[in-house]
Amino acid sequence: MRKAILFRLLIIIAISLIVISYFSPIWWVSLKAPNYPPEAFPDGVRIHFHVNGVFNGCQVYNPPEMLEEEPLDCVHEMDTINHYIGMYPIASGGPIERALSNFLFAFLIVLLTAFMVSKPSWQATWLGIGFSVIVIWMTITLFTPGGVTWMSKGYQQILQSNLELEREEFQKLNGLEAMLASYRNSSGQYFREPIEIEKRVNILATATYVIIGILITSMLLFIIGVLWKNNWFYWLLIIIPILLPVFFVLEYAGWLWWFGHHLNEMGAFTIKPFMPTVFGDGKVAQFSTYSYPHYGFGLMVLSSVMLIFAALLRRQQGLENKGG
């Protein structure tokens, strides 16, 4: 009985940590150079990566000789720096992942809550209810007028800023329209290639439908798998959320590779394709780069540790029941 209570308590704590991590900075990156003196830029040009977007990491800093009322927009500053070597704006990276992040996190939470249920029929029922809510939410958000308002507030702010629309105009869009329009504007912010950009927008739209299809198919497979009492599907309910920190790092590293290997020829300076620093200190031209986990990543890792202990407890319970 105590093990069963502890098992469920660990999962509930892990779910709470996952939810908090969604609203937290997961990784931070900073650029430092002689033209950004530490007296005015103590943290350099700093940005924070969240699962639903990239946000300003610069703070208001008031040395005795100057007064700031608002922090420098370091996302824009970093985009300006990067475009000189032909790098696309940060907002053009991970558009599908950011747009679907709230549904993907909800998907993980449904998996974990189903793992707490003992009977396969109850698991399938819970999965069916949870997945149905996600699909309805996703449909309203992405495909109905005004659906963009169902997205996370931070993500909405990024989209509206990229589109330079008044609030009333922005709120009329559906989520897919807003995502595609934002990607189009971001990609063409410094490099005017309308034909090439439109090709990428069309590919992005197709890829979004494919990813949604894969997500819905995965939902159906989980329901069928637990009904068939397939042991693999049962353990995947917790294994997939355990791997959340791994998924983030792979995604982050993959997009860094893309940015460093798809430099536009219109950049003022020509450099060879390169792999930006994923973890640690690096050097690009006269800039020193820093890339490290933020506290949100620590929350993800802690949730994974909780889930590993919960999985071990569940396995131990299963062995004891067989032995009894």
Automatic annotation (TrEMBL):
Keywords: Membrane, Transmembrane, Transmembrane helix
Keyword Transport found: no
Transmembrane stretches, start-end: 7-28, 99-117, 124-143, 203-227, 234-258, 295-313
Keyword rRNA-binding (UniProt): no
Name used for this protein in its record: Cytochrome C
Organism: Thioploca ingrica
